[in-house]
Amino acid sequence: MTYLFPAEPPKTVPIHDDSAAYPIRRIFCVGRNYAAHAAEMGGEVDREAPWYFNKAPYSATLSGATIDYAPGTENFHYEMELVVALRAEIFEGSVDAAQDVVFGYGCGLDMTRRDLQQVGKDNRRPWDFGKDFEDGAILAPLTRAADFGSVGEQAIQLRQNGQIKQDATLADMVWSVPEVISHLSHYYHLGPGDVIMTGTPAGVGPVQRGDRLEGTITGLTPVTVKIRNDPAQPPLD
Ligand code: MN
Protein backbone atom coordinates (compact mmCIF):
# COMPACT_ATOMS: atom_id res chain seq x y z
CA MET A 1 0.00 0.00 0.00
CA THR A 2 1.26 3.41 -0.89
CA TYR A 3 -0.26 6.60 0.42
CA LEU A 4 -0.94 9.71 -1.57
CA PHE A 5 0.80 11.70 1.17
CA PRO A 6 2.64 10.64 4.33
CA ALA A 7 0.17 9.26 6.90
CA GLU A 8 0.36 10.77 10.36
CA PRO A 9 1.64 8.38 13.03
CA PRO A 10 -0.83 7.87 15.89
CA LYS A 11 -0.82 10.31 18.77
CA THR A 12 0.76 8.67 21.79
CA VAL A 13 1.08 9.22 25.54
CA PRO A 14 4.16 8.23 27.54
CA ILE A 15 3.78 5.63 30.28
CA HIS A 16 5.33 6.15 33.69
CA ASP A 17 8.35 3.80 34.16
CA ASP A 18 7.97 2.30 30.68
CA SER A 19 9.78 3.01 27.43
CA ALA A 20 6.72 2.01 25.39
CA ALA A 21 4.17 4.66 24.52
CA TYR A 22 0.39 4.30 24.59
CA PRO A 23 -1.10 4.92 21.11
CA ILE A 24 -4.44 6.73 21.12
CA ARG A 25 -7.32 5.35 19.06
CA ARG A 26 -10.28 7.39 20.33
CA ILE A 27 -10.98 9.97 23.00
CA PHE A 28 -14.35 9.83 24.76
CA CYS A 29 -15.36 12.54 27.23
CA VAL A 30 -18.01 12.29 29.93
CA GLY A 31 -20.33 15.27 30.32
CA ARG A 32 -21.15 16.67 33.75
CA ASN A 33 -19.76 13.94 35.98
CA TYR A 34 -19.40 16.14 39.08
CA ALA A 35 -22.63 17.57 40.51
CA ALA A 36 -21.04 20.89 41.54
CA HIS A 37 -19.76 21.50 38.00
CA ALA A 38 -23.15 20.65 36.51
CA ALA A 39 -24.66 23.27 38.82
CA GLU A 40 -22.16 25.96 37.80
CA MET A 41 -23.01 25.28 34.14
CA GLY A 42 -26.70 25.81 34.89
CA GLY A 43 -27.71 22.16 34.84
CA GLU A 44 -28.24 19.30 37.19
CA VAL A 45 -26.87 15.79 37.08
CA ASP A 46 -29.14 13.27 35.47
CA ARG A 47 -28.51 9.99 37.23
CA GLU A 48 -30.43 8.08 34.55
CA ALA A 49 -27.40 7.68 32.29
CA PRO A 50 -24.03 9.28 31.63
CA TRP A 51 -23.56 11.02 28.29
CA TYR A 52 -20.59 11.80 26.13
CA PHE A 53 -18.87 13.80 23.47
CA ASN A 54 -15.70 12.98 21.58
CA LYS A 55 -12.42 14.58 20.70
CA ALA A 56 -10.45 13.40 17.69
CA PRO A 57 -7.10 11.80 18.57
CA TYR A 58 -5.53 14.61 16.56
CA SER A 59 -6.62 17.03 19.30
CA ALA A 60 -4.25 15.37 21.80
CA THR A 61 -1.14 17.27 22.91
CA LEU A 62 1.41 16.17 25.45
CA SER A 63 1.68 17.79 28.84
CA GLY A 64 4.44 20.36 29.04
CA ALA A 65 3.58 22.01 25.74
CA THR A 66 3.05 25.66 25.01
CA ILE A 67 -0.16 26.01 23.02
CA ASP A 68 -1.82 28.85 21.18
CA TYR A 69 -4.90 30.53 22.57
CA ALA A 70 -7.42 28.51 20.55
CA PRO A 71 -8.63 30.16 17.35
CA GLY A 72 -12.20 31.35 16.98
CA THR A 73 -12.93 31.81 20.69
CA GLU A 74 -12.91 34.65 23.17
CA ASN A 75 -13.62 32.39 26.14
CA PHE A 76 -11.03 29.59 26.20
CA HIS A 77 -11.49 27.43 29.32
CA TYR A 78 -9.64 24.74 31.25
CA GLU A 79 -11.31 21.62 32.63
CA MET A 80 -9.12 19.35 34.78
CA GLU A 81 -9.99 15.65 34.46
CA LEU A 82 -8.99 12.10 35.35
CA VAL A 83 -8.06 10.25 32.15
CA VAL A 84 -8.62 6.49 31.89
CA ALA A 85 -6.80 4.47 29.24
CA LEU A 86 -8.08 1.02 28.25
CA ARG A 87 -5.86 -1.99 27.59
CA ALA A 88 -8.33 -4.64 26.37
CA GLU A 89 -11.56 -5.10 24.45
CA ILE A 90 -14.91 -4.78 26.15
CA PHE A 91 -18.37 -4.83 24.57
CA GLU A 92 -21.62 -4.82 26.53
CA GLY A 93 -19.52 -5.40 29.63
CA SER A 94 -20.65 -5.45 33.23
CA VAL A 95 -19.42 -2.98 35.82
CA ASP A 96 -17.44 -5.81 37.41
CA ALA A 97 -15.76 -6.65 34.10
CA ALA A 98 -14.99 -3.02 33.33
CA GLN A 99 -12.24 -2.55 35.91
CA ASP A 100 -10.21 -5.35 34.28
CA VAL A 101 -9.84 -3.45 31.00
CA VAL A 102 -8.28 -0.36 32.59
CA PHE A 103 -4.64 0.00 31.60
CA GLY A 104 -3.94 3.08 33.62
CA TYR A 105 -4.78 6.62 34.61
CA GLY A 106 -3.50 10.07 33.81
CA CYS A 107 -4.10 13.75 34.35
CA GLY A 108 -5.74 15.57 31.44
CA LEU A 109 -7.10 18.96 30.47
CA ASP A 110 -10.32 19.10 28.46
CA MET A 111 -9.69 22.49 26.87
CA THR A 112 -12.94 24.09 25.80
CA ARG A 113 -14.03 26.98 23.59
CA ARG A 114 -16.81 27.82 26.02
CA ASP A 115 -18.47 30.47 23.87
CA LEU A 116 -18.69 28.11 20.90
CA GLN A 117 -19.96 25.31 23.14
CA GLN A 118 -22.67 27.71 24.34
CA VAL A 119 -23.67 28.53 20.75
CA GLY A 120 -24.06 24.81 20.21
CA LYS A 121 -26.21 24.42 23.31
CA ASP A 122 -28.37 27.44 22.49
CA ASN A 123 -29.01 26.32 18.92
CA ARG A 124 -29.24 22.57 19.58
CA ARG A 125 -26.16 22.03 17.46
CA PRO A 126 -23.26 19.64 18.10
CA TRP A 127 -20.52 20.57 20.58
CA ASP A 128 -17.65 19.76 18.20
CA PHE A 129 -16.62 23.38 17.63
CA GLY A 130 -16.44 23.92 21.37
CA LYS A 131 -14.62 20.72 22.26
CA ASP A 132 -12.80 19.11 19.33
CA PHE A 133 -9.91 21.22 18.04
CA GLU A 134 -6.12 21.19 17.91
CA ASP A 135 -4.51 21.11 21.37
CA GLY A 136 -7.95 20.49 22.85
CA ALA A 137 -6.86 17.49 24.96
CA ILE A 138 -3.68 17.97 27.01
CA LEU A 139 -2.50 14.60 28.32
CA ALA A 140 0.11 13.75 30.97
CA PRO A 141 2.02 10.44 31.10
CA LEU A 142 -0.06 7.46 32.21
CA THR A 143 0.40 5.47 35.40
CA ARG A 144 -0.51 1.79 35.41
CA ALA A 145 -3.69 0.97 37.32
CA ALA A 146 -1.86 -1.40 39.66
CA ASP A 147 0.60 1.35 40.58
CA PHE A 148 -2.18 3.87 41.20
CA GLY A 149 -4.52 1.67 43.21
CA SER A 150 -8.23 2.25 43.64
CA VAL A 151 -9.92 5.43 42.45
CA GLY A 152 -11.28 7.08 45.57
CA GLU A 153 -10.45 10.02 47.77
CA GLN A 154 -7.49 11.26 45.72
CA ALA A 155 -7.48 15.04 45.35
CA ILE A 156 -8.01 16.48 41.86
CA GLN A 157 -6.88 20.09 41.53
CA LEU A 158 -6.22 22.72 38.90
CA ARG A 159 -3.87 25.64 39.45
CA GLN A 160 -3.83 28.67 37.18
CA ASN A 161 -0.59 30.64 37.58
CA GLY A 162 -0.18 28.90 40.93
CA GLN A 163 -3.64 29.74 42.24
CA ILE A 164 -6.04 26.87 42.99
CA LYS A 165 -9.15 27.05 40.82
CA GLN A 166 -10.52 23.51 40.96
CA ASP A 167 -10.35 21.38 44.09
CA ALA A 168 -12.31 18.16 44.55
CA THR A 169 -11.75 14.44 45.01
CA LEU A 170 -12.23 11.59 42.56
CA ALA A 171 -14.90 10.24 44.92
CA ASP A 172 -17.03 13.23 43.89
CA MET A 173 -17.58 11.70 40.44
CA VAL A 174 -21.25 10.90 39.85
CA TRP A 175 -20.40 7.91 37.67
CA SER A 176 -17.45 5.74 38.72
CA VAL A 177 -14.80 4.68 36.22
CA PRO A 178 -16.15 1.10 35.89
CA GLU A 179 -19.71 2.42 35.55
CA VAL A 180 -18.66 4.73 32.72
CA ILE A 181 -16.73 2.00 30.89
CA SER A 182 -19.56 -0.50 31.26
CA HIS A 183 -22.16 1.99 30.04
CA LEU A 184 -20.06 3.19 27.11
CA SER A 185 -19.33 -0.42 26.11
CA HIS A 186 -23.00 -0.88 25.28
CA TYR A 187 -22.58 1.67 22.48
CA TYR A 188 -19.03 1.00 21.23
CA HIS A 189 -16.68 -1.93 20.86
CA LEU A 190 -14.14 -0.44 23.26
CA GLY A 191 -10.57 -1.61 23.22
CA PRO A 192 -6.87 -0.80 23.53
CA GLY A 193 -6.14 2.79 22.60
CA ASP A 194 -9.50 4.08 23.76
CA VAL A 195 -9.15 6.88 26.28
CA ILE A 196 -11.90 8.34 28.45
CA MET A 197 -11.81 11.81 29.99
CA THR A 198 -14.08 11.40 32.99
CA GLY A 199 -15.45 14.91 33.51
CA THR A 200 -14.41 17.97 35.46
CA PRO A 201 -15.13 19.26 38.97
CA ALA A 202 -16.49 22.73 39.68
CA GLY A 203 -14.30 25.78 39.18
CA VAL A 204 -13.80 25.84 35.42
CA GLY A 205 -12.77 29.19 34.06
CA PRO A 206 -11.13 31.20 31.30
CA VAL A 207 -7.45 31.30 30.46
CA GLN A 208 -5.45 34.28 29.23
CA ARG A 209 -2.43 34.41 26.97
CA GLY A 210 0.68 33.80 29.06
CA ASP A 211 -1.15 31.65 31.63
CA ARG A 212 0.37 28.51 33.06
CA LEU A 213 -1.99 25.67 34.03
CA GLU A 214 -1.10 22.75 36.27
CA GLY A 215 -3.51 19.93 36.98
CA THR A 216 -2.77 17.37 39.67
CA ILE A 217 -4.28 14.16 40.96
CA THR A 218 -2.69 12.52 43.99
CA GLY A 219 -0.49 9.65 42.80
CA LEU A 220 -0.32 10.69 39.13
CA THR A 221 2.08 12.76 37.03
CA PRO A 222 0.76 16.35 36.81
CA VAL A 223 -0.44 17.83 33.53
CA THR A 224 0.94 21.25 32.64
CA VAL A 225 0.41 23.59 29.75
CA LYS A 226 1.29 27.18 28.93
CA ILE A 227 -0.83 29.47 26.77
CA ARG A 228 1.42 31.24 24.29
CA ASN A 229 1.77 34.94 24.96
CA ASP A 230 1.42 36.27 21.43
CA PRO A 231 -0.33 39.60 21.25
CA ALA A 232 0.10 39.59 17.48
CA GLN A 233 -2.58 36.92 17.04
CA PRO A 234 -5.19 38.67 14.88
CA PRO A 235 -8.88 38.55 15.85
CA LEU A 236 -11.34 36.73 13.62
CA ASP A 237 -13.61 38.86 11.44
MN1 MN B 1 -14.88 18.01 30.33
Find the CATH topology. Answer: Fumarylacetoacetate hydrolase, domain 2
Number of helices: 6
Shape: globular
CATH arch. level architecture:
Alpha-Beta Complex
Q: CATH H level: which superfamily?
A: Fumarylacetoacetase-like, C-terminal domain
Under the CATH scheme, which class?
Alpha Beta
Radius of gyration from the CA trace?
17 Å
Helix content range: 10-25%
Q: Care to describe what's here?
A:
This protein has one domain: Fumarylacetoacetate hydrolase, domain 2 (Alpha-Beta Complex). By secondary structure, the chain is of the alpha+beta class. Strands 3, 4, 5, 8, 9, 11, 12 and 15 form an eight-stranded mixed β-sheet that branches. Strands 6-18-17-13-14 form a five-stranded mixed β-sheet, with no helix packed on it. Strands 10-7-16 form a three-stranded antiparallel β-sheet. The chain contains six helices and 18 strands. Bound molecules: manganese (II) ion.
What's the arrangement of secondary structure elements?
Blueprint: E1 12-15, E2 18-23, E3 26-30, H1 35-40, E4 52-55, E5 60-62, E6 65-67, E7 76-78, E8 80-86, H2 95-98, E9 102-110, E10 112-113, H3 114-122, H4 128-131, E11 137-139, E12 143-144, H5 145-148, E13 155-160, E14 163-169, H6 177-184, E15 194-197, E16 205-206, E17 212-217, E18 223-227
Parallel strand pairs: 3-15, 5-11, 6-18
Antiparallel strand pairs: 1-2, 3-4, 7-10, 7-16, 8-9, 8-15, 9-11, 9-12, 13-14, 13-17, 17-18
Bound molecules: manganese (II) ion.
Manganese (II) ion (MN) binds next to loops.
